[in-house]
């Protein structure tokens, strides 16, 4: 099996190479990069580093771009867009490369990789920072930490800022503070004709609205954001864990999940929490922004969760901002300041571990802190996933919830399938972004599993996800997170990701990119799409 997969893959790669030697494109990119290291920053299908360079976080064999160009200056991006169009390819922006379907590395495209466009210039008053759109969250947090500031972003240190803000951006402070998209003051955007505009509440406000939550790779390429900075107060952290012992007592996983969905979203807005539903165990974790261990202990004691089975309970106070970023990775407790290992945040532009035997692309891999250790390489996966928003107006029935929890229990061991379900019910800090589910979402139900290189196993796992879709979609409706795109969604994807904003976004798209230069299979088109009348 392994051997035949390998032969098939080798054949595939060579076909891709032979079919598309993009000479004109390459010459044009070399010119655009003439100021420094033109040949070190271009990867073609024939290069040993091509497989590594075309893969983002996901191990995938669906998308084979024509060429990958690693920009390092904002000023290179406009000329790169023109190179792509002149040679007949689509320009595709890539920041962190986490897109679940690899839409930042499409076939027949020039990938404009922005991971090295990662400058962080903090203003004198430390209230804002001009930041390269390709920076990874860990690098951003590390750089801002040196100024005693932070950004209301997401959790994973290797996610890119460009993709996060395009999707909306949620994290463990969101119920009180809102989404990453709310913390953008302005953005510099390269349009389809290669020109640059500033998008802000007063300059191209329609574009400014769309690029925050209206989907990535659609309206233009954001090269720089001006971010509004925050500081987090001392906070408290919760970890409740029911291990496999409690699986034996019957409905513990279901009882906890049910109690959580009623309790988590109803708590004070400073408390953001999630339940992790595994095959044989379950956890509840949470972050109480500005709260003490005493305050958190009170809401946990009153939750009813402690009466289910006999969980391990950790309630710890005095957490700092670094703790908030490590949450869920290295620790579920607040470590004292001098013991926090923030190196996990100190990521380099190419932060991934090697895939199989493929040579890795590297170029000026400089971390944001020279005194902290560098983050260890981030493991790529064959991730399979789904996303559903449970709406305030349509809570899950007990029967459906029970069936979903059972379904997780039935997944094969190797799938490592689990549900990561976040309490939403965000408070009203909305700055008016295109993220569609802000006011209606009560909880986000994410499902994650490992894919397999064995086609039969892969098929079985895809069927498992199809069953989850069949169970949940009719129960919760179309709403899904645009940062978790899913090729097998059973409803119109545009409605799922953009809700009632679709027509407004189509109008903005047709104004700024009528020729559909920036696009991908789930992007807003310049004309009303089939099935939707605007
Ligand atoms: C392990 C993991 C953890 C995650 N955790 C969180 C989380 O805590 N919170 C959360 O909200 N989301 C989370 N996500 C989802 C993540 O935010 C989205 O997948 C996001 O789109 C990834 O951004 P990226 O820049 O890394 O990806 P990319 O693949 O580089 O880009 C994603 C999309 O945005 C476009 N794009 C990228 N940069 C630009 C730009 N500068 N201008 C215009 N378009 C651009 C791309 O073309 C592509 O369509 C997580 C995903 C993974 C895999
Ligand atoms: C991309 O191109 C390869 C061949 O180069 C092909 O096998 C693959 O199916 C294509 N992907 C998509 C999504 O069409
Ligand atoms: C939403 O959260 C607020 C606290 O911020 C709470 O008062 C309200 O009851 C919650 N709504 C729901 C539907 O849980
Ligand atoms: C929560 O309950 C535990 C066990 O009864 C008790 O020891 C603890 O003091 C309580 N915490 C608070 C903050 O009330
Ligand atoms: C499972 O949880 C119980 C109760 O918290 C604990 O006593 C036991 O040691 C745990 N077992 C394992 C294997 O972690
Ligand atoms: C745990 O629960 C799953 C279903 O949720 C079941 O298949 C499995 O046998 C249980 N394990 C034990 C040890 O009871």
UniProtKB/TrEMBL annotation:
Indicate the segments forming the FAD-binding PCMH-type domain, all copies.
Answer: 61-232
Cofactor(s) this protein cannot do without: FAD
Record's keyword terms, sorted: FAD, Flavoprotein, Oxidoreductase, Signal
**Keyword match Signal:** yes
N-terminal signal peptide: 1-18
Q: Name one Pfam family in it.
A: FAD_binding_4
Q: Which family does it belong to?
A: Belongs to the oxygen-dependent FAD-linked oxidoreductase family.
Q: Which PANTHER family match?
A: BINDING OXIDOREDUCTASE, PUTATIVE (AFU_ORTHOLOGUE AFUA_1G17690)-RELATED, FAD-BINDING PCMH-TYPE DOMAIN-CONTAINING PROTEIN
Q: What is this protein called?
A: FAD-binding PCMH-type domain-containing protein
Q: To which species is this protein native?
A: Coniosporium apollinis
């Amino acid at each position: 099996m392994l051997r035949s997969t390998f032969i098939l893959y080798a054949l595939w790669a060579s076909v891709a190479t032979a079919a598309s030697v993009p000479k004109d494109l390459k010459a044009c990119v070399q010119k655009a990069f003439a100021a420094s290291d033109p040949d070190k920053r271009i990867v073609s299908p024939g290069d040993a580093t091509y497989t590594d360079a075309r893969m983002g976080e996901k191990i995938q064999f669906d998308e084979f771009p024509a060429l990958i160009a690693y920009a390092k200056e904002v000023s290179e991006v406009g000329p790169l867009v023109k190179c792509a169009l002149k040679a007949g390819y689509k320009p595709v922006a890539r920041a962190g490369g986490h897109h679940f379907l690899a839409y930042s590395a499409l076939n027949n495209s020039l990938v404009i990789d922005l991971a090295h466009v990662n400058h962080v210039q903090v203003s004198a008053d430390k209230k804002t920072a001009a930041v390269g759109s390709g920076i990874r969250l860990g690098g951003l947090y590390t750089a801002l930490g040196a100024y005693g500031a932070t950004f209301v972003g997401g959790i994973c240190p290797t996610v890119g800022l460009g993709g996060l803000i395009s999707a909306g951006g949620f994290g463990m402070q969101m119920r009180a503070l809102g989404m990453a998209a709310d913390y953008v003051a302005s953005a510099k955007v390269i349009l389809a004709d290669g020109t640059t505009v500033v998008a802000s509440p007063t300059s191209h406000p329609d574009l400014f609205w769309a690029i925050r939550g209206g989907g990535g790779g659609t309206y233009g390429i954001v090269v720089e954001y001006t971010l509004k900075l925050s500081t987090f107060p001392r906070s408290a952290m919760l970890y409740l864990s029911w291990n496999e012992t409690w699986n034996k007592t019957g409905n513990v996983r279901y009882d906890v999940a049910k109690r959580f969905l009623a309790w988590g979203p109803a708590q004070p807005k400073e408390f953001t929490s999630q339940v992790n539903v595994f095959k044989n165990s379950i956890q509840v974790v949470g972050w109480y922004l500005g709260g003490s261990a005493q305050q958190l202990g009170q809401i946990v004691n009153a939750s009813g969760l402690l009466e289910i089975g006999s969980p391990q309970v950790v309630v710890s106070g005095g957490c700092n901002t670094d703790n908030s970023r490590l949450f869920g990775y290295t620790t579920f407790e607040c470590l004292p300041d001098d013991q926090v290992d923030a190196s996990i945040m100190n990521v380099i532009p190419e932060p991934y571990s090697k895939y199989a035997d493929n040579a890795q692309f590297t170029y000026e891999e400089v971390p944001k802190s020279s005194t902290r250790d560098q983050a260890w390489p981030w493991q790529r996966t064959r991730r399979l996933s789904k996303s559903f928003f449970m709406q305030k107006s349509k809570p899950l029935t007990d029967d459906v919830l029970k069936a979903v929890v059972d379904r997780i229990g039935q997944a094969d061991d190797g799938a490592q399938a689990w549900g990561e379900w976040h309490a939403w019910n965000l408070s009203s800090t909305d700055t008016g972004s295109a993220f569609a589910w802000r006011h209606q979402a009560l909880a986000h139900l994410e499902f994650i599993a490992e894919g397999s290189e064995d086609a039969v196993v892969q098929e079985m796992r895809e069927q498992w996800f199809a069953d989850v879709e069949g169970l949940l979609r009719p129960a919760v409706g179309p709403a899904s997170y645009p940062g978790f795109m899913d090729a097998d969604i059973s409803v119109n994807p545009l409605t799922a990701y953009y809700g009632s904003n679709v027509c407004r976004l189509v109008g903005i798209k047709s104004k700024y990119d009528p020729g559909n230069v920036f696009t991908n299979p789930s992007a807003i088109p310049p004309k009303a799409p089939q099935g939707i009348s605007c």
